[in-house]
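Study this chain:
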Amino acid sequence: MMNWDQLLSSVRFGQESLESHQQSSRTEFQRDYDRLIFSPSFRRLQNKTQVFPLPGAVFVHNRLTHSLEVASVGRSLATAVCISLKEKYAGQTWIDKLESLDDIVAAACLAHDMGNPPFGHSGERAIISFFREGEGRRFQEMVTAQQWTDLTHFDGNANAFRLLTHKYIGHREGGFALTYSTLASIIKYPYASTFAGHKPKFGYFHSETEAFYRLVDRLGLEPIKVQGELPLSVDGVPLHNISGEEIFPHQAPQRFARYPLCFLVEAADDICYQIMDIEDAHNLKLLSTAETQELLLGFFDGEQRERIERGLKYVPDINEQIGYLRSRVIGTLVYECTQAFLLHEEEILQGTFQKPLINCVSEVPARAYAHCSEVAFSRIYNSSDVVDIEVAGYQIITTLLDKMINAVLNPDRAYSRLLLDRIPLQYETRVEGVYPRIMAVLDYISGMTDVYALDLYRKIFGMSLPSL
């Protein structure tokens, strides 16, 4: 069974032997938050599609504004959980560690989408399609079975873990060198791509296997399933735990329970994307004011709904009305998800609870949330603007993948040298092996903004030239 004392670790990944001697009022988890906020990778989220095309005359959410809102909601969830857990565990020697729950969750919320490629989720699908059914199929015989599964199940969650932990050329050991607790909070699917099945959902790439097991060992994550032979080495190099000992099958099952705070990060994301997509759709006039109001009022019934409806009469501006309803809905879902976490906390620590918290809310908000999901899929995600960005993104990303992977695998060709000059030196395009070079290309392309990817695509085809 997992325990909070071990789970809440301020040790930094890649800097385990170092002690901080800096005098500061900030905790290590607050440093995580600040480190992410000021990073170029986070800033680039401002030009990455959330759902609707960017930019536009009407404000809609991008990946950056979405992540900031998720961090705000995540902090509220963690603060409420902290209050109750401190009462439950009063007298424990480690109880002060709980004070950092809000900082850990907020930092993880900032990072949760940093591994997503340009053009929203269509970017992920484009990468997967390239390897499964496109030009990328020719690389299957050049990599191992597990490496191929990584490529054909490409997932933004696993890519975020790589981005945050991988030592790129010129970077320090441990990547962002975040605390173990913050890193664990972003891993929604704590298993390798070989266990993903038909869905592109997994927690880490083959290249980050050892990093993942170091995290498991440090935090004491609970094993939930053992299946078959275990990956005891990465490219022939044995895996080791934090004590330096080799990992053996009985010590390292391949599937683990989620890190508990990951449930709060997921809940914050579920709350924000669903409700904010509805608000964006209203701003873009995909949904009428009456439809939007009814969707949001559906989260309430009885006297509470009547009270909210009366309150709307004092807000004459339509957009302010929608904003007021949105805030009430988020407040309700924060309360509901907090109660769900506390109710199932012991199951979460045992590793036997695996449902999203949003699936555990009470009947009225659950029904309203499901209705919002139905409307989103029928009226928002299939709208012409959203489909158009997906079509364009698919073409851009698959083309860039084809050109860039061909270049890194054939670096001595004249055209390859021109393309390779575009790739920043931090990416390991000259490393030995086909899989590491493909991963370097994925690092480069997934880190692009929508605008950068489009501009590079135009340059490759001669549609955009510098001024002469």
